[in-house]
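Here is an idea for our session: we take a single protein and study its fold together. To get us started, please write out a protein record for me. Start from the sequence, derive the backbone structure tokens from it, and show both lines together. Go ahead whenever you are ready, and we will take it from there:
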Amino acid sequence: MSPDPMAELHEIRGSIDNIDAALVHLLAERFKNTKKVGRLKAESSMPPSDPEREAAQIARLRRLAEDADLDPAFAEKFLEFILAEVIQHHEALAADSE
């Protein structure tokens, strides 16, 4: 046991806070790019959703999760949540371009 568990807890939580901040910045960057994709799709009359790509991305993320010792089902749920938001944005962009 650590001589000062509260200090250790504070240190671990600090690391978690840093990771959370990095995740927010990564998600912001991801959504900047998916917004570009959505605009391109809307301008080119492409469908907002690409089920083949989405399935491939889910499979890819599950493999990455397994390699990283993360629950693949959790990784899939996380990506599905993000994909649903992206598709919603793409649908809105498509509706705006009509």
Q: What stands out?
A: Helices lie at 5-43, 51-67, 72-96.
